[in-house]
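Q: Mind making up any chain with structure tokens?
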Amino acid sequence: MMHNVVATGDRLEIDAPRNNCPLNETAPHTLLFAGGNGITSIITMVGRFQKLGQSFQLHYFSRSAGHTAFRERLALGAYADNVFFYKGYDIVQTQNALHDALDHSTNGEHFYVCGPSPLWTPPKSARARTRSP
């Protein structure tokens, strides 16, 4: 483990950050799905879309209001109308809410998901349904 071999004053060589999920800033509309600490990646996208005036919706799943990071910023910020909170949902409720959001999506929308595995299945299915041949 790194903490066992690195000491104060040691020099470390690091690489530049990688972006394995580049943001499409020209999509007609984007659906963002965050669960738990997945919001830390997604909130940066929210800020960028707001700055660009791009159309988006954020669907944010958390255990409770107390476990909802950035709650005030998202609920009271300039983009509050585009943020939907889901608190205390079990897996079935989470997937039903995701299906509901995706059922209203169009073919040109983009999806970004960051969070636990129950968030991933419905968007992957929707992408497969709308993918061009």
In short: Residues 128-133 have pLDDT under 50 and may be disordered. Strands lie at 30-35, 56-62, 83-87, 110-114. The helical segments are 2-5, 39-52, 71-76, 91-103, 121-130.
